Amino acid sequence: MDYKKTNAPASTVTRDMMELCADTGNIYETVSIIGKRSNQISVEIKNDLSKKLAEFASYNDNLEEVFENREQIEISRYYEKLPKPTLIATQEYIEGKVYYRNPSKEKDKLQ
Hints:
The protein is an all-alpha fold. The protein has a domain at 18-58 and 65-96. Helices cover 57% and strands 0% of the residues. The longest helix is centred in the middle third of the chain and has 28 residues, at 27-54. It starts with 16 loop residues before the first helix and ends with a helix. The model has no long low-confidence stretch (mean pLDDT 82).
């Protein structure tokens, strides 16, 4: 997924907590949902970055061959400019793009 195209802000934004927890009715459950999605996004971004930087890996032990690699620097800058995973997850939650369910609430409805 291209996280650069997300509507998430690049810096921290103050949110209305009552508006944020309107779907679940519980702020702690909402924070848990956003936190878990944030961890998923973080893992995805880390895996993408690792794959891209693996192409530039040097397996030589010779310290004299250290040089700047412009492409590697550009890739690193791209990932540094991305919004933080928590901001992306919060924006996805607000836009309704996050699927979640609570099995304990589903059991209560069945009984």
